Amino acid sequence: MSLASRVTNGNDSTHQIAVKGWTSSKLSSNKDQGLESLLVFLEKKAGRPLLQHRRAGQTVLIITVNSHDKDRFYHLNGFTFAGATLVLEEARPPGNRSHNQNSSDGRYPHQSHNNHSSQPQSSPFSSQQPPRGPRAQQHHRQNDSATSEAENLIISIIRARYNAADKHLVLNALAADPLITGSELVNSPPDKVWKSIFAMCERSVWETPSKRRESVTSVSLRDDHITSVKEILNLSSVFPTIQNLDLAGNQIPSLEEMRFWKNQFRELEHLILTGNPVAADPNTLPTLLKWYPKLKMYNGEPVAQVAQVPAGPAVTPFANPSPIPQQPEPTASHPEFPPGSTFGLPQEGKSMEQLQREQMGLQFSFETRLKMQWVENCLTANNWDYAAAIRNFQDLRTANQIPPEAYITGV
User: Fold this and answer.
1) pLDDT for 322 beyond 80
2) What digits encode the pLDDT tens for the residues 348-400?
3) Residue 411 belongs to some domain of the structure
4) The pTM is what?
5) What whole-number distance in Å separates Cα of residue 393 and Cα of residue 289?
6) Number of domains the chain is built from
7) 386 neighbors 357 (Cβ within 8 angstroms)
8) Which residues pair with 168 in a beta bridge?
9) Is 394 within the bounds of a domain?
10) Where is the composition biased (Low complexity) (predicted)?
């Protein structure tokens, strides 16, 4: 097992879920029955990474997730995927079958009296039994030691590449990093290494969304041999509010390989794709402007200048643009708030996280006509990912699962 796998796939911290119903989707005629699209769907809707997946028969997909993320995936039970209703339930290990299957009278089968009767029975799903007693304790200590070693190594890489003054996480040319080339990580698949890095960012370096928002506003992944943002998909869930993203010098061929980040990074103001084939496509910038409404800089230049429209003086890459002025009273036309409400406005003692959530909630309510209580429920269930919450709302509305009392008039 690779070092990266030990970070994310430890038995004590993972959970397996069975996903059913997906093979009846509109994508079932595809070569993979829509499996690849389903995996992307699950990760985006849950806002959490999938660690592993495997098929169990023709119709069941078994996914492995971090234990602390399992509720995010169970929340997707009943969601619609390409026209099919998904069923997510706890996966039952093959070894948990009842002993009644081995005995016609419902009792445990009698032990054989031959010379092998004292030997433990081998499971058909493994080549040997796990160690027991003192051997088991030693086995667990070895696994814990390996996991701790892997986690500490990745945390060291993150901290060594973080510029606190600029709030900039610099992960450029990671494959050439001496800490990686001198470890088992060099033999790990790149996507697993990235998953491990972002998992450690989330769990051990900046443990809360507010810490990540305040500590990291820029991320650079130059010259990392990235061919699709799917390889670094978790970046959008761990750092959804970054303002600057540098992907220069990679090998992203087209917008098709960037679609997994469509409508993510709602605060993104500067994106660098220089050196990627996708940057040569004239449709790239117009599409990015639709995906990222706050985008102001592209490849180091103002977007208006790139589009050959007269613009002001050039802005230094990763400069902080002037803040967008707020409305005097965002709740003025919302019937649930009294005149003079400060909801959605900056105030002394109000954290930036709370302010952003209030503004996001108002926008969501105006767009969906949902009451604020239902808005908060929907955004919370989707980890405050606005695009995911909108899709969740649309799915529930299509399925007629939103009661009339959830809506308000006058919005």
Assistant:
1) no
2) 777 777 877 888 888 888 888 889 888 888 888 888 887 888 888 888 888 88
3) no
4) 0.45
5) 24
6) 3
7) no
8) 163, 218
9) yes
10) 109-130
